[in-house]
Amino acid sequence: MERFGPGPVSAVPVAEFRPNEGSLTSTLRTLLFFTALMITLPVGLYFSSKAYVFEGSLGMSDRDSYFYAAIVAVVTVHVVLALFVYVAWNEGSRQWREGKQD
């Protein structure tokens, strides 16, 4: 029976096996950033616009302020999604230009 010990395979640096690790890290960082924005921004803007803008400054009723605050939250979701698509598109085209596309 042959014994396999450390040979030429272990002499190869680990970084050579993962050439796109920086790209993966950048992609995950972007995804986590926009996930946090998608969770916090619409909810925060909903409650703050309802309490401070629509009920506080404009003096609207509860029913009207719910409706307009929901519109603000939906618009915020669309803006965050559009920004994510824009950033992801530019990141992908930058990687393609550099020749790092999977």
From TrEMBL:
It is found in: Endoplasmic reticulum membrane; Endoplasmic reticulum-Golgi intermediate compartment membrane; Cytoplasmic vesicle, COPII-coated vesicle membrane. InterPro entries: Vma21 (IPR019013). Signal peptide: none annotated. It is a multi-pass membrane protein. Keywords: Cytoplasmic vesicle, Endoplasmic reticulum, Membrane, Transmembrane, Transmembrane helix. The chain crosses the membrane at residues 28-47, 67-89. GO terms for cellular component: endoplasmic reticulum membrane; endoplasmic reticulum-Golgi intermediate compartment membrane; ER to Golgi transport vesicle membrane. GO terms for biological process: vacuolar proton-transporting V-type ATPase complex assembly. PANTHER family: VACUOLAR ATPASE ASSEMBLY INTEGRAL MEMBRANE PROTEIN VMA21 (PTHR31792:SF3). Required for the assembly of the V0 complex of the vacuolar ATPase (V-ATPase) in the endoplasmic reticulum. HAMAP family: VMA21. Belongs to the VMA21 family. This is Vacuolar ATPase assembly integral membrane protein VMA21. It comes from Pipra filicauda.
